[in-house]
Specification:
By secondary structure, this protein is mainly alpha-helical. The chain has 2 domains: about 5-105, no CATH class; about 115-245, Alpha Horseshoe (Serine Threonine Protein Phosphatase 5, Tetratricopeptide repeat). Helix content is about 70%, strand content about 0%. The radius of gyration is 18 Å and the shape is globular. The two termini are about 30 Å apart. This is Tetratricopeptide repeat-containing protein. InterPro entries: TPR-like_helical_dom_sf. It comes from Filimonas zeae.
Length: about 250
């Protein structure tokens, strides 16, 4: 498995890597067939979204969600700046959407393992900006999480959520780290807050809340939570696939 995340692929495709990162990525790309396929898929999805994401009300709502998440994540790390041009925001929206679609396409529910393991497996993708203490913690937490060292990931993410309670990104992956270490009772209040909120993790939180009950063989509660996910949610197809297996 490549050490590069979906976010790395998106950053490479959009020219956002520094020289050292670029050299390392291209060195891996020359021999890593899996990475080559993921990059090709990202580029295909990105091109398709550029054609389909004409400015409209839905796109404007999506852009607002991205700005909201950006504000949550960097609220205490950035000075106030003027709004980015619409074209730049649109490109960011397309890049983010492409990364999400690629992650969904690469997810394979038919791979081996029990029901919970197959559906709970996710990769942590952090939008890191260097030089900030929170960013350093997130970088380390991302490494732990993607290497399945969920205990250490939870420890670092808890530090972030304690210092920045409104960071929904850290809250979400903190909850997932807890569920992966069989601490469902601790994860549920975090997931519930996310579901009751307005961040982009609202319906992902509902999906993973359902998985906490799947892990306990409580299919009734799992189905209840899966039923809260609307068709327009990105996680809807995955939720419906799980629902059919319960």
């Amino acid at each position: 498995m490549s050490r590069f995340t979906f976010e790395d692929i998106a950053r490479y495709a959009s020219g956002d890597m520094d020289s050292d990162e670029l050299a390392a990525f291209e060195a891996a790309l020359a021999t890593d067939e899996d990475l080559q396929k993921k990059l090709a898929l990202h580029q295909e999805v990105h091109s398709t979204l550029q054609l389909r994401f004409a400015p409209n009300e839905k796109l404007q709502a999506f852009q607002q969600t991205l700005r909201q998440l950006n504000g949550e994540y960097f609220a205490q790390a950035r000075p106030a700046t003027s709004p980015a041009p619409v074209k730049r925001i649109r490109l960011a929206a397309i890049t983010t959407a492409a990364a999400a679609v690629v992650a969904l396409l690469i997810w394979r529910p038919w791979q081996g393992g029990d029901l919970y393991t197959r559906y709970a497996s996710v990769e942590m993708i952090a939008n890191i900006e260097r030089g900030n203490t929170t960013d350093s913690l997130l970088t380390e937490a991302t490494t732990y999480f993607n290497n399945k060292d969920y205990s250490n990931a939870a420890r670092l993410l808890k530090t972030i959520t304690d210092s920045i309670p409104g960071n929904s990104f850290a809250q979400f992956y903190y909850a997932l780290s807890l569920t992966q270490t069989n601490q469902q009772p601790l994860a549920r209040p975090v997931l519930l807050r996310l579901y009751n909120g307005t961040s982009i993790f609202k319906y992902d939180a509902a999906f993973h809340m359902a998985l906490t009950y799947v892990s306990e063989k409580n299919n009734t509660e799992a189905k209840t939570w899966l039923g809260k996910i609307p068709p327009e949610a990105t996680i809807y197809a995955k939720a419906q696939a799980l629902l059919k297996e319960l």
